[in-house]
Amino acid sequence: MSQPLFGLIPAGQPVIISPTEAPSPTSFLYAIPPTNPNSPPGSAISKPFGHVVVFLLPGVVLPPGTAAAIYLVTPPSPALGQTAPNFKFLGGIGPGKESAIFKVGPGAGTGGGNENVVIGVSVEDAESVASRMAAAGTTSAATSGNGTEGALVPVSVARQQPSTLVLAQRIIKNAFNFLSSYTGSTPGQMEVVPLKAFEEWWKKFESKVRTDPGFLERDDDQ
In whole angstroms, what is the distance from residue 91 CA to residue 11 CA? Predict the structure, then answer.
C-alpha cells in the first residue's frame, strides 16, 4: 500500500487513516478501540460508539468501475463451528458518494469486555457493491455525508453511460427545441434562425450544464 486510501471516524474518537492490517492491495482492516483511550473515565466520549464515518481521503480516486465495500468484522464462533471471521456487509462508498455514516451497533464494544471493533474496507466491482446494497436494504444502516439515505454507490457508477452519439443527439434536440420558436423566413421562403437566438440558447445551455451536469445523461425530454 503506497498511501492511505480511506479515513474512519468512530463517534467520539479521533480520525483513523492507517489500517491495522492490509490482507491484500485492495482490502484493509481497521481495529478500533471500543472507547476513546485518551478520554477520562466516565466522560461522554469514553462511552462505546454506535456509528462510524468512512470516507475517501482527499485526492484518492478509485479505479474505474469500482467502489469500496464496508464490512463489520467479528470473530468466529466456535459454538457454531466457525473457524474464520464473519464479515457483515454494511454498505459502500464510491465516486460521487465519497463518505457515509454506518451503524455498527447500539454501542460497539458493549458485547463483552474491551475487544476492538474491526471495520473492513474492500475495493470491489461497483455493480456488485450496488446490488448487495439493494438486496440488503442498507438504507436503514447507512447515510451519506450529505444527508442522503440509501445507496451510497451512485447509480451512474453501475449504469452504462450514454454513448457519444446519443449525447450529441440530445444536444442537437435541445438546441432544435429552443431555436424552433425563433425561426423566420427569407423572401425565398427559406427558414432562418437569428444569430442572437443561437447565442441565447448557448447561454442557457451552459447555465443548465453548470447547475445540472448530468441532465444530458438522463433520457428525459431535452
Answer: 18
Give the mean model confidence (pLDDT) for residues 79-99. 87
Q: Which three cell numbers stand for residue 114?
A: 474491551
Q: Taking 50 as the threshold, does the pLDDT of residue 129 lie above it?
A: yes
Q: What is the distance between the alpha carbons of residues 119 and 51, in angstroms, rounded to a whole number?
A: 11
> CB atoms < 10 A from the CB of 105, how many?
14
pTM of the model: 0.58
Rounded Cα distance between 13 and 36, Å, is 5
* Range 79-88, long-range pairs (CB < 8 A, 24+ positions): 85/118, 87/120
Starting from the edge strand earliest in sequence, which strands make up the sheet with 99-103, in order? 6-10, 51-56, 99-103, 142-144
Phi, psi of 156 (to 5 degrees): -65, -25
Q: How far apart are CA 193 and CA 185, in angstroms?
A: 9
* Rounded Cα–Cα distance for residues 53 and 144 (Å): 9
Location of C-alpha cell 420558436: 181
